Each structure stands twice: as structure tokens, then as C-alpha cells.
């Protein structure tokens, strides 16, 4: 409310008038919940809705209106995409590698571990998916709308990279299958040559073919996923039948395997001896990765890379007729189906194939199949469809990141490069990155990178659900009933542990990259500055702050840990920007509240809303513009005085209620608008619109709505409410930039003497120590640290005579006190104090204007004039020593008591004397402390 930066008199009225502020930036519809538009493509982006906020009307997930245009059921929309993604390149190409190295026991254990992690993550996916519509972007969409743009953008980026790596993995598997069937393969017939760069050429050709399909017929592929899964299942059944019917045979070793001297290995058919020999681990070298040694981590990384498709169903929510039922049912059934297939395949492989063959020919399923062509078709369809799915997914995640402006203008080319809702630029960019991944060559190495990146995505998904559940957000009401915080926690811990088990370097690198992205997005991303989809950080902070506020007991406060908690009362921030900034410096980590009183009445017959509600957002914008760490409190009251009483009582919470109230000084000096002043560091047009200025202030010639007596009563109210008080004057002169670059300004001054009533005992009382504490706090900050703290010792002859009652003179006692308080300050005695000023002569006169007066007599005109001359003389002494002073702290005497005779006149004289005392000084703070705030003990 009040907080004018005034001089001998300021034109700033410390009160806000009863006029209502104009409101700008009203509702434009972005604050209301809206439905995403329907998507025509399987992998369409959330951004295609033209809804930058990404809002979803949670209650309308199953609404018939919302479901119009949604045609997919559980089987086609969820089961098929998930099962197909989880088969990928693993089912026909690497299960034998896993069994041959890890043994059947460890293989089954690894599948159980992988699927337990997946099961817990599926619970989190189902929880988020059934709590609101999940559109394109998969993990990115879920996490960004849950954890916020910083974590969402970083995890979304890693999820994009995971899809790119997954595409490279599938292409490598597809190329491996082609070479095995049409390359040398250790035999005499060869249609195509083999070699490292030949393989890269085949992979690049497949990648280019996928690029063409995505650019032309991606939607057709999405609609045929059910048929593709059928083909893969038929090929898999042919493998099971072959294991049960085929007899012993020799299988040739691939041409690329130059680690062994033999050319073939034995397939035995179903035999107990073969099963027994394959039960235990037998790690060897990987012939596809330059002979690198295989171990548990390598095997698990390859295994997990093949089962990372659990998000495929959640990505389909925009196309599903009933997402809340289809996603859990379809995903869980696909997980169970693939788990049984893998377990059965592992047992049959262990019971029929020697470890020598399993370790040296990863594509042995073709030669031993009754119909070898089925395995070839299975490999090509499973890998090609998975790679195509990943390429489409990667491009759609990139499109979502671009349209959410996560990386600002850096990805604007993606939006510009969209044709008929197909993000061509994103597809091409993803294709280029896949080419880079293909340079790695080894499928098993790519698989480990793929596993770590997908695990990090799953970790973040579990973290999102765990955070929401812990905070107890009322709007988190998933219809999936089997989710608890336990499942999210186990999923989070499982993914975190297994990331490091697979490859600690890859895991640590991905986490560091994620954290760097979080920091960079928080600092620079436009999405983080204006995202409207919410952040879990706010919910977590609310949860923790509430808990610790309840634990913070004001009855246990100790002076050693005292810190200023400021309530700055502001009428119009336009004219007191430097003061707002200065108080922010003076709070020293304490709470800071900017309070404002709007004069008016909340009438019963008035249908309009409380005006403070509408103005609150403007004040929050002001805090952002000023870059101060402050809360805002507004109140509506019939008078300024009553409103200030409200603010003092209700501001803050618990033990964090303000203990210090700050007001601007009451005078007639002309103020200036710091939002318009050309050289002002606070200049802005943000609060000017349509010819209307927000935060109006009293112009020259306008009458004040707050009188002198009411102002003095406010001062008295603050002290009687047991709050420390600061009256600030001349702060329109404060220029922190000049202090930083100008060596002429060198001091912070403290005058610890009550000019109205100099004491005859120890002059260093609670008020003096309080102002020294504030001065010391200011000096701790970087801009103020270079200034010297000066304490002026004002000792009269009368005080000197009475100082005999003490063992040492006042100067020595002050020096000792400063040392005990660890305050680095120089002490300056004032010679004129004894020569030119007679305290004894004026002491009884001055007391009449303060709350310490026992006199109820009328004040003589002569005494009033003598007091003014006396104040002018003291003012001159202070001014003579303030040429290089940045800020001056002075002792504020208590105002006259309300019961005194001629109280109103005394109020005028009290304020006049303070005006004379502070005339033409640097920025000045008149301080009155209530309680001790310093401690000399550890």
C-alpha cells in the first residue's frame, strides 16, 4: 500500500485511490479446458491440434462426442502395435544369442526381470493414459504435461533419440537377415556380397526405403499393423513346429564369423542332454562386434532392447474408441502374450540347439525351419515394421517438440517443413540421424544404447506418476485401478538399476545429458517461460512447503537465527521501483511481501467480483518485471489504515509472517514514473495498454486521500502491533548501477541516537542494534559489499558526564559491541554535538512530540519553532557527512500517544520535525526496532 520513495515532500500519495484499475489481457479462451481435435494418423502430433497449451478435458475421454472419429478397438489399436513392437528384431535374431551365452536359467531370469520392470511401467503408462487423453508424442507428451516442459522436453528429446536408435537397431537386424539368406553365409551360393561397408550400404538402402514409405504411405502402414502381426505370428508358429519335428542336422557358420575354425555346428533336436548343457552360463565373444566379450549386461541390454514397445498403445489414444479400457487391457495382454512367446521360444531353443551353434550363428532359425522362407519373411516383416514404426515415432516426437517451441526457433524448420500434416522436415532429420547410428555397425552395441535410452524414458514415466501420487493431486484420478505409488517406485528403481547394469557409461552419459537439457530448457526455452500445461514441480513444492511450514514453529524461534521478513506497503509501484528493489536486498533470505490496499467497499448488492482478484495477476507481472523474490498481498478496505491493519495481520503464514513493516515517507515532493523515465533501469511498456496506465499514482496538484493524522496513526498502529518499522525517504534517488560503477559513493551510514530523546544511560539500545543489523545485512550483498559501514557516535556533554556510571567511555563500549556482533564498521565521533547542540535544553520540548511524553499540556509556539531550528541544525550536521553516502539509517522516535492533548496538532509537528531532520539527505531509512535481533553467542 504505502511505499513512496519520497524526498522533503513527495507528490507520491502513499495511498491508492478508490478508483479501480483497468484490467487488460482478459480471458481469450486459453484458460478454459478444450478437447484436442481428432487425428487422422496413427502417429499424429499434439501440436496438430493448434492448441499450444495442450489442454485436455479429462472428463470427456469416453464422451460420445469426443469419441467421434475414433474407430480403433483394443485388438487393432493397442494389442497389435504393442506386440509387434515388442517382437522387433529380437524374436528371430537374438533369442538364440541370449540363451547360448546366458544359459536357460539366466535367460528366463532376465526375461522375468525385464517384464517385471515393464509391468510396473505399464501400470504408470496406464495410469497416465486413463487420467487424460494421450496424443502423439508418446512419452514426451505424457511427461511434459505431467512433469512440466523442462523435464518433458529433455526426456522427450531422449525419447526421440531412443526411437532413432531403435530404428537403427531394427534396420541392422533386417540387413542381417537379408545377408544371412542372400549373402555368402559360409556357402557357395551368394547373391549379394558381404562386408562392413556392404552392410552399411544395405542398411542405408533400407533406411531410404523407410523414408520413402513414411513420406508417401505411413498411414497405410499404420492400418496394416494387424496383418503384419499375423504374418509374424505365423512365422513364429512355424518355428515352434520346426523345433518339435526337425531332427538332428549340421548348420553352417556365417561367413562373417571369423572367430572359429570350423564351418558348421550341430542342431540336435529335442534332447535332454542338449537342454542340460544349456542350463548354465557360457559367455563367449560376440562375432558381430569385433570379438567383444559377452557378459550379463551385454545380454540383458540386447534382450531389453527387443521389448521396449509398451508405449505403442498409449500413443494410439487419439484413435481409440475407449482409451481408458483399451490401453490397459491391450497393453497388458500384449505383454503377457509376448512374454509367453519368449519363454516358450527360450525353452525350445535350449532343448534343441547346442551352445556352439547358438554362439556362432545368431540366425540359425532359418536353416533348421521346415519352411526357411517363413523365417526370412518373419525377420523382414518384424524388423522392417519396427524400424518404420520407430522412424515415424521419432519424426512425430520431433514435430511435437517443435510445435511446443521447446527449443524455440532452432526447430522452426520442422513446422515450416510440414505438408498435408506430414512433418517432412522432421522425417528427413530423423532419417539423417538414423544414418549416423548405422555407422556403429554392431546390432548388439546399438541394442545397449537403445535399451538405456528407453529405460530412461520409462524411469521418467514412473517418476511422473510417483510424483503425482505423492503430492496427492486431486485431479489425478486414473480409471486404471491397479496403479499405486508402490508400483511406480519399483518401476523407477528397477529401470534405474538395470540402466547401470546394462552399461554404466551409457547410463551416466544419458542422465548427464538429460540434466543438462533440463537446465538449458529451464533457462532458455520459450516453452518453459509460457507453458500452460502445468508442472509437477509446483505440486511437489506445495506438498513440501506445507509440510515444513507446519514444522516451523514460531514458539521455537531463537534470536540467533533471526532474519528480516519484510512487508512493504506500496501505493503505486511506478514511483517506488528503487525502494522495491532495495527491500529485496535487505530481506537476507527472509520472506518478502509487497502489500497494497485498495480503498473501496465490497457491497452486498454489487454483483461484480472482488477487484483485488482481477488486479492480482498484474502485481505478479510487476514482481516478474522487477526481478524480486516477493509475494503479493492485496486487500480491499474502507480506509487505508484499516487495510494496513489487515495486511499486517494476515500476510505470511505460520512462522513466516512479516516481522518488519516498511512504509514510504509522507511528504510533498514531486515523484517520477520509473516505468516511463528514459534512463530508468525499470523502463517498460508492459503496464501501458490502450491508453490506460496500470498502477496509477497521484499527480502534481491532486489532493491526497490520506491525511497526516491518519498516516501517523498508521505508524503508531504498526508499533502497537509489535512489528519493526521502517520509514523510507528519498529512495527515488537510489541508483544501484551508479553505486556499482562510481567510486565516489563509498559509505553506508548509521546514526544510532534518538534525536528526540537522547538517553543519559547506555545509548546503544534495541533500536540502534536493529538498524545496525539492517545495515550489516545490506553490506553483505555484492553491490553493497564494497561500501564502508560507518557508525556515528553522538554523545552530548550531559551524556559524557553520566558515562562515568560505566567502566569505559561510550566509544569503547560501542567498539566492543560491534566486535561482539561481528559487524565490521568504523566509529566516527561528532565534535559539533557537544559544541553547538544543547540536548538538555531541547530534550523536554522534543519529548512532547513522541509517545514517551508524560505531558498533556499545550505546546507553545516558541517551543515548536525552536524544535524546528534544532532539527535543521542536526540535519546540517548529517548532510555535511553524507556527500559520499549511499544509504543512511536513522533512529525513528515513537509517535505521540493518541490520548494526549491536541493530538492532531502533535501529529503534524511530529511529521514536520522528521521532515526537517531528513531534508535533502541521501536515501534514508528511519528505523524503530521492537525486539532484540542480534546475538553474541554461538
Automatic annotation (TrEMBL):
Residue ranges annotated for the SLC12A transporter C-terminal domain, each copy included: 578-668
Highest taxon, organism lineage: Eukaryota
Gene Ontology annotations for the cellular component aspect, listed alphabetically: membrane
InterPro entries tied to this protein: AA-permease/SLC12A_dom, SLC12_C, SLC12A_fam
GO biological process, one term: potassium ion homeostasis
Biased composition (Polar residues): 1-21
Membrane topology: Multi-pass membrane protein
A Pfam cross-reference name: AA_permease
Domain Amino acid permease/ SLC12A: 84-567
Record field: transmembrane: 75-99, 155-179, 199-218, 225-243, 294-314, 326-351, 371-393, 424-443, 449-470, 482-500, 506-524
Record has Membrane as a keyword: yes
Predominant location category: membrane
Keywords: Membrane, Transmembrane, Transmembrane helix, Transport
Single Gene Ontology MF annotation: potassium:chloride symporter activity
Chain spans, region Disordered: 1-27
PANTHER family: GH08340P (PTHR11827:SF72), SOLUTE CARRIER FAMILY 12, CATION COTRANSPORTERS (PTHR11827)
Family under the similarity heading: Belongs to the SLC12A transporter family.
Name of the molecule in the record: Solute carrier family 12 member 9
Organism for this UniProt entry: Anopheles culicifacies
Organism placement in taxonomy: Eukaryota, Metazoa, Ecdysozoa, Arthropoda, Hexapoda
Amino acid at each position: 500500500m504505502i511505499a513512496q520513495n519520497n524526498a522533503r515532500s513527495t507528490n507520491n500519495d502513499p495511498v491508492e485511490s478508490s478508483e479501480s484499475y483497468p484490467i487488460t489481457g482478459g480471458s481469450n479462451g486459453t484458460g478454459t479446458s478444450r478437447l484436442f481435435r481428432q487425428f487422422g494418423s496413427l502417429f499424429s502430433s499434439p501440436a496438430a491440434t493448434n492448441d499450444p497449451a495442450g489442454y485436455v478435458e479429462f472428463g470427456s475421454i469416453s464422451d460420445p462426442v469426443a469419441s467421434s472419429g475414433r474407430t480403433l478397438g483394443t485388438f487393432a489399436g493397442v494389442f497389435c502395435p504393442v506386440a509387434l513392437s515388442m517382437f522387433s528384431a529380437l524374436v528371430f535374431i537374438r533369442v538364440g544369442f541370449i540363451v547360448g551365452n546366458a544359459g536357460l536359467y539366466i535367460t528366463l531370469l532376465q526375461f522375468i526381470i525385464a517384464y517385471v520392470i515393464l509391468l510396473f511401467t505399464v501400470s504408470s503408462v496406464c495410469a497416465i493414459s486413463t487420467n487424460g487423453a494421450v496424443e502423439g508424442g508418446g512419452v514426451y507428451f505424457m511427461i511434459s504435461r505431467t512433469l512440466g516442459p523442462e523435464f518433458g522436453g529433455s526426456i522427450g528429446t531422449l525419447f526421440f533419440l531412443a526411437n532413432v536408435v531403435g530404428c537403427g537397431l531394427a534396420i541392422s537386424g533386417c540387413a542381417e537377415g537379408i545377408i544371412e539368406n542372400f549373402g555368402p553365409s559360409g556357402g557357395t551360393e551368394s547373391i549379394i556380397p558381404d562386408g562392413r561397408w556392404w552392410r552399411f550400404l544395405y542398411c542405408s538402402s533400407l533406411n531410404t526405403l523407410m523414408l520413402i514409405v513414411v513420406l508417401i504411405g505411413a498411414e497405410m502402414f499404420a492400418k496394416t499393423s494387424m496383418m503384419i502381426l499375423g504374418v509374424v505370428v505365423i512365422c513364429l508358429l512355424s518355428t515352434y513346429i520346426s523345433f518339435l519335428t526337425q531332427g538332428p542336422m549340421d548348420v553352417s557358420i556365417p561367413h562373417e564369423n571369423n572367430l572359429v575354425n570350423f564351418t558348421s555346428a550341430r542342431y540336435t533336436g529335442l534332447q535332454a542332454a542338449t537342454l542340460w548343457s544349456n542350463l548354465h552360463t557360457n559367455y563367449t565373444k560376440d562375432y558381430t562386434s569385433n570379438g567383444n566379450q559377452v557378459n550379463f549386461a551385454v545380454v540383458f541390454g540386447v534382450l531389453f532392447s527387443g521389448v521396449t514397445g509398451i508405449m505403442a498403445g498409449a500413443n494410439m489414444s487419439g484413435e481409440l474408441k475407449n482409451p481408458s479400457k483399451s490401453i490397459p487391457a491391450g497393453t497388458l495382454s500384449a505383454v503377457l502374450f509376448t512374454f509367453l512367446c519368449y519363454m516358450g521360444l527360450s525353452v525350445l531353443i535350449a532343448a534343441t540347439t547346442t551352445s556352439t551353434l547358438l554362439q556362432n550363428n545368431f540366425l540359425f532359425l532359418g536353416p533348421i525351419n521346415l519352411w526357411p522362407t517363413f523365417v526370412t519373411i518373419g525377420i523382414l516383416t518384424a524388423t522392417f515394421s519396427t524400424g518404420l514404426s520407430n522412424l515415424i515415432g521419432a519424426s512425430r516426437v520431433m514435430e511435437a517438440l517443435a510445435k511446443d517451441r521447446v527449443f524455440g526457433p532452432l526447430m522452426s524448420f520442422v513446422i515450416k517443413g510440414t505438408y498435408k500434416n506430414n512433418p517432412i522436415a522432421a522425417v528427413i532429420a530423423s532419417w539423417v540421424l538414423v544414418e549416423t547410428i548405422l555407422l556403429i555397425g554392431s546390432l548388439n552395441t546399438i541394442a545397449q544404447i537403445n535399451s538405456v535410452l528407453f529405460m530412461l524414458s520409462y524411469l521418467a514415466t514412473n517418476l511422473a506418476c510417483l510424483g503425482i501420487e505423492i503430492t496427492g493431486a486431486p485431479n489425478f484420478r486414473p480409471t486404471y485401478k491397479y496403479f499405486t505409488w508402490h508400483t511406480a517406485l519399483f518401476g523407477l528403481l528397477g529401470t534405474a538399476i538395470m540402466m547401470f547394469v546394462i552399461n554404466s557409461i551409457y547410463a551416466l552419459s544419458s542422465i548427464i545429458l538429460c540434466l543438462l537439457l533440463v537446465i538449458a530448457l529451464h533457462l532458455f526455452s520459450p516453452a518453459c517461460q509460457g507453458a500452460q500445461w502445468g508442472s509437477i514441480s509446483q505440486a511437489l513444492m506445495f506438498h513440501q512447503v506445507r509440510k515444513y511450514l507446519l514444522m516451523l514453529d514460531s514458539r521455537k524461534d531463537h534470536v540467533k537465527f533471526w532474519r528480516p521478513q519484510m512487508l512493504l506497503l506500496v501505493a503505486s509501484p511506478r514511483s517506488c521501483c528503487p525502494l522495491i528493489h532495495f527491500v529485496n536486498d535487505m530481506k537476507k533470505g527472509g520472506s518478502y511481501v509487497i502489500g497494497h490496499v485498495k480503498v473501496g467497499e465490497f457491497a452486498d448488492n454489487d454483483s461484480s467480483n472482488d477487484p483485488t482478484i482481477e488486479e492480482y495477476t498484474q502485481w505478479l507481472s510487476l514482481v516478474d518485471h522487477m526481478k524480486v523474490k516477493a509475494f503479493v498481498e492485496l486487500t480491499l478496505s474502507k480506509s487505508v489504515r484499516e487495510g494496513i491493519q489487515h495486511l499486517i495481520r494476515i500476510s505470511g503464514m505460520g512462522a513466516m509472517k512479516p516481522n518488519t513493516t516498511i512504509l514510504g515517507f509522507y511528504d510533498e515532493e514531486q515523484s517520477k514514473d520509473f516505468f516511463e523515465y528514459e534512463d530508468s533501469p525499470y523502463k517498460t511498456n508492459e503496464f501501458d495498454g490502450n491508453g490506460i496506465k496500470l498502477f496509477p499514482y497521484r499527480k502534481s496538484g491532486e489532493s491526497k486521500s490520506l491525511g497526516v493524522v491518519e498516516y501517523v496513526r498508521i505508524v503508531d498502529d504498526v508499533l502497537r502491533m509489535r512489528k519493526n518499522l521502517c520509514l523510507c525517504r528519498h529512495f527515488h534517488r537510489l541508483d544501484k548501477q551508479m553505486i556499482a560503477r562510481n567510486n565516489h559513493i563509498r559509505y553506508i551510514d548509521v546514526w544510532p541516537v534518538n534525536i528526540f530523546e537522547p538517553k543519559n544511560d547506555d545509548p546503544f539500545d534495541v533500536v540502534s542494534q536493529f538498524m545496525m543489523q539492517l545495515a550489516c545485512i545490506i553490506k553483505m550483498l555484492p553491490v553493497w559489499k564494497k561500501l564502508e559501514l560507518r557508525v556515528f557516535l553522538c554523545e552530548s556533554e550531559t551524556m559524557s558526564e553520566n558515562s562515568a556510571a560505566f567502566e569505559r567511555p561510550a566509544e569503547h563500549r560501542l567498539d566492543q559491541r560491534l566486535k561482539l556482533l561481528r559487524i565490521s564498521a568504523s566509529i566516527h565521533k561528532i565534535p559539533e554535538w557537544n559544541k553547538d547542540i544543547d540536548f538538555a535544553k531541547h530534550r523536554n520540548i522534543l519529548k512532547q512530540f513522541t509517545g514517551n511524553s508524560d505531558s498533556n499540556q499545550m505546546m507553545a509556539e516558541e517551543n515548536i519553532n525552536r524544535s524546528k531550528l534544532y532539527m535543521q541544525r542536526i540535519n546540517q550536521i548529517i548532510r555535511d557527512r553524507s556527500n559520499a553516502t549511499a544509504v543512511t539509517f536513522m533512529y525513528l522516535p515513537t509517535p505521540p500517544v493518541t490520548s494526549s492533548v491536541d493530538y492532531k496538532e502533535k501529529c503534524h509537528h511530529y511529521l514536520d520535525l522528521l521532515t526537517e531532520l531528513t531534508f535533502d539527505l541521501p536515501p534514508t531509512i528511519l528505523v524503530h526496532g521492537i525486539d532484540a535481533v542480534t546475538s553474541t553467542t554461538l
